[in-house]
Amino acid sequence: MEKGNIKNLKELIDLFEHNIKQYKGKHYDEAKARADFIDKFFMLLGWDIYNEKDYSEQYRDVVREDRVEIKGKVKAPDYSFRIGGFRKFFVEAKKPSVNIKHDIEPAFQLRRYAYTAKLPLSILTDFEEFAVYDTRIKPDKHDQASTARIFYCTYKEYEKEFDFIFNTFSREAILKGSFDQYIEDTKRKKGTSEVDKEFLKLIEKWREDLAKNIALRNKNLTIYELNYAVQKIIDRIIFLRIAEDRDVEDYGKIQKLLENKKTIYPQLVNLFLKADVKYDSGLFNFKADQVTPELKIDDKILKDIIKSIYYPDSPYEFSVFDVEILGNIYEQFLGKTIRLTASHQAKIENKPEVKKAGGVYYTPKYIVDYIVKNTVGEIVGACGGVPKTPKEIEKIKILDPACGSGSFLLGAYQMLMNYHLEYYTKDKNIKKSLKENKIYQIKENEYRLTIEEKHRILLNNIFGVDIDSQAVEVTKLSLLLKLMEGESQESAGMLFKFSDIKMLPDLSENIKCGNSLIGSDFYETAQMSLFQDEETSRRINVFDWPQEFPDIFTQGGFDIVIGNPPYIRIQNMKEYAPDEVEFFKKNYKSASKGSYDIYVVFVEKGLNLLSKKGILGFILPSKFFTTDYGLSLRKLITENNALYKIVDFGYSQVFENATTYTNLLFLNRKPPDFVYYSKISNPTHVSNNSLDFRKIDYKNFLECSWTFASKNETELIEKIISNSTSLIELPSKIGRGSSSGNDKIFIIHEKGDLFFDSKGNQINVEKEILRKPIYSTDFGRYHFKKTSKDFIIFPYYVSEKGYNIIPEKDLKRIYPKTYRYLLDRKKILIQRKQYTYWYGFSAPRNLDVHESAQMLVPLLAEKGSFSNIPINSSEFCLMASGGFSITIDTKCNLSPAFILGLLNSKLLFWRLNKISNKFRGGWITCTKQYVGTLPIKKLNIDKLNDKNHYNKIVKVVNQMLEVQKKYQSIKIETEKIMLKKQIDILDNQIDKLVYKLYNLTEEEIRIVEIEK
Question: Can you tell me the distance from the alpha carbon of 746 to that of 770, in angstroms, rounded to the nearest whole number?
Fold first, then answer.
């Protein structure tokens, strides 16, 4: 920190100290504390609190909320600190008379805000006190103020702690990555459950409870009506509850239904009817909805739902609930459906397509943002090129043909609103924009788009189609909530006073339900009896694009097609949609092969829907680059000269809990001169928006294959993966080492029979509570050699539930010497504000895995450097800097020596090198996410050939371990040279055996051997 900042910090501290009685008095409020101290404190951290750089509203560093209270309930956090428009952390300010350290309410308030906004850390301060909370931990109304608090200090300790505060929460620290590193370092296993997963559980419970009760009380409902009714009720409740916290509706409107003795559901329907008058949106359209008004629902079900969304039972603060997060939640929610049993009981189950696809995987926001920037941004001129005027943008039509919960349409809509606001607030445009009611002013130099303008953009530019009627309703809901952001009862009132339009538009002409891939011509070849089959007709749900969007197709089609089409193998579709599969085969060039994935058909349809100068941007699997089933699609794209840009993620994973290798594919109807190709090892790097692209001549792209590495390499990778099981699925356990939190206290040194601390002072501890720490220097390729005399205090015991920290009273009784040593250090830690870890590790990761570990993995390696643990692993404690341990489950029936040989072979390290992060000097990352995917060849040990080959590898690996053991202990140089020759021979034998195991040809072996 600069000297000037230190001086200013001291002045702030001295001022507060000098007048502390006044500041803690009842007349000194929060607004004054913010202006006098808190604003200035964060300015010292490099934040542009007052937007002196004149950034546009959407990109300003700090959003400072006005103090808005509705019936004693605050509507928004005091500060939102952002980088590039993205929230990083909240700060909740209080007046100095509030007791930050002990008062429960302020901590709960902050944690609800940050938890709901899915922020990992946030700050509570009155300047007198400064507290940091881990807001990944779900808040509970019974929590103490100290729950989830990971740092605390008073103003008297600011000078001492300011390096930590500056290096974590300053603007500079966030740009340098220190903030994210601190988040990772403070990550805890227990208690963390992110908001999307918890809210998903909540609405899934609503669905189940509502479905069962409605089915029980309304026996006349069909399965379709039941699904429709449950979805509508949930959507309407969520919308109105969010509207309350955003101050568009009176707070507690739904909650009031619990205050009288009247039946709840008719009152709820009355609320919905009033909302229909106010919003005039399809969400509350009871002319179209003849199902929900007359339902019978028990009060208990609705009471539980309503209580779960209000303070203090609810951990959610809907004013900061991002629509994008809600969309991700709904994406998972829509993967299940309600079915009725013969006795009219409701059951929840996965949809057929979800079962076959192995689950629902929503698209990360950074992927959505990148695709939107490189399609919408490119067309409108927001990301290079000539900027278009709002009048020109009116004509641009953006489509997601498989919109799901609407994440891509939300991203496109947000970019368009940002672009328009920036355009209207340029100095030369402001007066005209205000006069034409395009924007309105909320503060000095702060403007927002009017509701009318947001309506216009949404209705003119955003279009979506999905075969799932529930998905269509969720997309509409998401877009309406996005439009409503930043609005209030005041702005709604002004709208109704001066305009004929309602607050929300009807999106029925923009977001439609239908089968993007099948039109009414389906029935020209299919049997007409299908018309009488209601279930089949509903499933196929034909959709005629020119009839549904006549104006757009008169203009030549859509200008932008974006999205994440479904990934379903056509063989799986045959089981539940055989008629559709037959139609694809006859009507799509990309489906001419017998085996393919449905996403290739979506690419073809998307290309056909584009206007003459249109752009398509999809995220989809990369397998079509080289596979046989991708041949027809490759041919279609190359014949149209449409290939424009590819971002290849190689074998890195984008989707959580899925092994799908993906890319971002951009097609352009206007033939580009070159294909731009970039391969990146970490998908999140697309957030930088500054990828290195290679320009590849179009003539290199033949229909036979697209290989950005070499075809041989791609075929080799597919070959070793086929008929293999990933290491993590053997089954096996892979765990990162633990962190003590303070090595100077927990790590001690042995000299003779005595122990010494880090400063060389002799100490008394019981040896029974000690373990030997393992560092990366203690092992290498096929060898383990613990040479240091370090020991680590290991205050844990094993129970049926795993590792537990020894209670302090038991520690004092069983290990009195160690207890006294730790107690002495506790005083030091209290001064350093690290006393929460005064004994027991700060990150006791995977202790159960390490206890039975058989192998060790370094964090970084330049060749296969896996090691066995030749002695009892329970004597040791693997440290975070040591890397990872591997334990092969006994169910696997494969020897650890066999696995060790494979992992250290040239072949599997070559594979690891292809998927891992790379560093200078040929070093790569050997973390679980990469090592866990390494392919272990499936063997049938009952077959003689497999058994013999297996035994040969085990035998040679055991020989290697013996020779390495001798090599590490020998002291005579000539003998070391001799043993090194033996090691090289054994290495060569293992490599040959592994090549043979995976059936590599001589050419394939050369590919592996050439690459260093």
Answer: 10
b vs e for 671-689, b when ≥16 Cβ sit within 10 Å of the residue's Cβ?
ebeebbbbbbbebebbbee
Q: What is the 3-state secondary structure (H, E, C) of 534-559?
A: HHHHHHHCECCHHHHCHHHHHCCCEE
Average the pLDDT over each of 460-469, 514-523, 784-793, 982-991 and give the range with the smallest value. Answer: 784-793
Identity of the residue numbered 166: F
* Paired sense of beta strands 462-466 and 610-621, if any: unpaired
What is the CA angle 567-572-575, rounded to 5? 140
pLDDT tens-digit map of 31-65: 999 999 999 999 999 999 998 888 877 788 998 87
Residue 555's identity, in one-letter code, is: Q
Q: How far apart (Å, rounded) are the C-alpha atoms in residues 593 and 601?
A: 11
Q: How far apart are CA 341 and CA 565, in angstroms?
A: 32
Dist. CA 526–CA 580, nearest whole Å? 10
Q: Where are the beta strands (DSSP E) in 698-801?
A: 724-726, 732-736, 747-751, 754-756, 762-763, 770-774, 779-780, 783-784, 790-793, 796-799
Residue 824 belongs to what H/E stretch? helix 816-831
Closest CA to 412 of 400, 424, 402: 400
Of 736, 741, 685, 732, the C-alpha closest to 859 is 736
What's the rounded Cα separation, in Å, for the pair 785 and 799? 30
With beta carbons less than 8 A apart as the criterion, state whether 221 and 214 touch: yes
pTM as predicted: 0.66
Parallel/antiparallel/unpaired status of strands 129-134 and 121-125: antiparallel
* Residues in Cβ contact with 4 at an 8 Å cutoff, skipping those fewer than 6 apart: none
355, exposed or middle or buried, with CB in 10 Å at 0-12, 13-18, 19+? middle
Contacts (Cβ under 8 Å, ≥6 apart) of 360: 331, 332, 334, 335, 354
Structure token digits, residue 366: 């950074």
Q: Where are the domains of the chain?
A: 3-185, 195-357, 732-858+866-888, 890-1012
Q: Which of 55, 270, 37, 42 is nearest to 172 (CA)?
A: 42
Distance CA 504, CA 407 (A): 19
Helix (H, G, I), strand (E, B) or coil at 885: strand
Which token pair is 47?
Answer: 């934040």
The model's pLDDT over 648-685, given as tens digits with 9 standing for 90+, comes to 887 677 877 666 778 999 999 988 778 888 888 788 88
Q: For residues 760 and 745, give the distance between their C-alpha atoms in angstroms, rounded to a whole number.
A: 12
Among 755, 818, 741, 759, residue whose Cα is nearest residue 789: 755
CA distances from 651 to 404, 696, 736, 915 (A): 26, 21, 22, 5
Strand partners, 750: 755
Give the N- to C-terminal CA distance of the chain in Å, as an integer: 44
Q: How far apart are CA 569 and CA 352, in angstroms?
A: 13
Six token digits for residue 35: 């202006």
Crossing angle of the two packed helices 906-915 and 896-904, in degrees rounded to 10: 60
Please tell me the predicted confidence (pLDDT) of residue 380: 93
In one-letter notation, the amino acid at residue 864 is: G
Three-class HEC string of 4-34: HHHHHHHHHHHHHHHCHHHHCCCCCCHHHHH
Per-residue pLDDT reduced to its tens digit, 503-513 = 788 899 999 99
Q: Report how far apart, in Å, the C-alpha atoms of 360 and of each of 180, 238, 353, 568, 574 are.
A: 28, 22, 10, 11, 20
Q: Which residues contact 153 (CB under 8 A, 6 or more apart)?
A: 129, 130, 161, 833
Query: How many whole angstroms separate alpha carbon 370 and alpha carbon 663?
Result: 12
Helix (H, G, I), strand (E, B) or coil at 807: coil
- Report whether pLDDT(70) > 60: no
State residue 325 phi and psi, 5-degree precision: -65, -45
Please give the residue that has the higher pLDDT: either 1002 or 194.
1002
Residue 768 to residue 812: CA distance in whole angstroms: 14
